[in-house]
Design goal:
This protein is about 15% helix and about 30% strand. With about 60 residues, it is α+β, with helices and mostly antiparallel strands. Strands 1-4-5 form a 3-stranded antiparallel sheet, with no helix packed on it. It has a 3-stranded antiparallel sheet with strand order 2-3-6. The chain is globular and about 30 Å long. It contains 1 helix and 6 strands, in the order ββββββα. A hairpin with a 4-residue loop joins strand 4 and strand 5.
């Protein structure tokens, strides 16, 4: 499975239910160099995958939560 190399935590906000919502245009870069553009309002839920990536898990790891 592909992994996330770079994600800007300041461009996301964690919700009380454990999901993360994008609060401004954001680019997620994978270790293979692929860039995924995320629009404000996009929500990532724990256990969910987008383009094979577990974005909520990566955001939890980056934030230390």
């Amino acid at each position: 499975m592909e992994e996330i190399a770079k994600v800007e935590i300041k461009e996301f906000q964690k919700n009380p239910d454990g999901s993360w919502v994008c609060i401004k245009n954001s680019d997620i870069t994978t270790k293979s160099g692929r860039v995924i553009r995320v629009s404000p309002g996009t929500t990532f839920r724990p256990g969910g995958k987008v383009s094979g990536l577990e974005v909520a898990k990566a955001l939890d790891e980056v934030s230390g939560q």
